[in-house]
Amino acid sequence: MNLLLVDDDDLLRSQISFSISSLFDDIYEASNKEDAFELIKNKHIDIALVDLSLDTEFDGVDISKETLANSIKTIIFTANQSQEIVKEFIKDGVFDYINKPIEIPSLINALNRAKLFVENEKKLAEENIYHLNQCVDAKEGIKSSLTHLEKDLLIKILKQNEFNIYQTAKLLNTKRENIYYFMKKYNISRD
Q1: CA-CA distance, 63 to 46, in Å (whole number)?
Q2: Is the C or the N end of the chain the one with fewer CB within 10 Å?
Q3: Over the stretch 45-94, which tens digit does the pLDDT of each residue have?
C-alpha cells in the first residue's frame, strides 16, 4: 500500500515519513502543489496525508480536493483548528483530520484505519460493490442526489478500469453507448 505525504516543512515531513515507513510499501513525498499533483498523476496512491497549511494559502486545500477526486483516502492535518474547515472537508469526503502538533501514535492509528478501509473497499470492488461518499443537500431533492451518485459511480468504475468502456459497461450491466452518453452528459473525459 502506498502513501502520499505532503508538507512543506522538510524536517517534519522526514520525521513523519521515518515514523510510519514500516506501514507502507512506498511513501511518496511532496513539499508543494506541483510535485503532489505530479505524484497523484503518475503513481498509484492509496492514502494521502496532506498538510492544509502549505506556503501558499490554498495549495493544501487544492491538493486535498485532487486526492479526493482521485478516490484516494485522504487525511488532512493543520494547526488551523477552524470547525468550518473541518466541516467542509468532511462534507467533501476526507477520511480523517489531525491537529498539529502531530502525535505519532494518533497518526499511526488514523493511518491503520485508513488502510483497513482501503483494503476492504478493494475486496468489495472485486465483488462489484462500491463505496460512494456523497454529501447532498436535501433541498436539492432526490433526483439531484441520484444524479450525483450516478456520476460518481461512473467515474469510479471508469477510473478503476482505466477508462475501458467495454469493461465499464459490462460491470454496470449496460451498453457501451450508454456509457458514452453518460460521459458526455457529465462531461467526463479520459485524463
Answers
A1: 14
A2: C
A3: 999 999 987 777 678 888 998 998 888 999 998 877 667 777 777 778 89
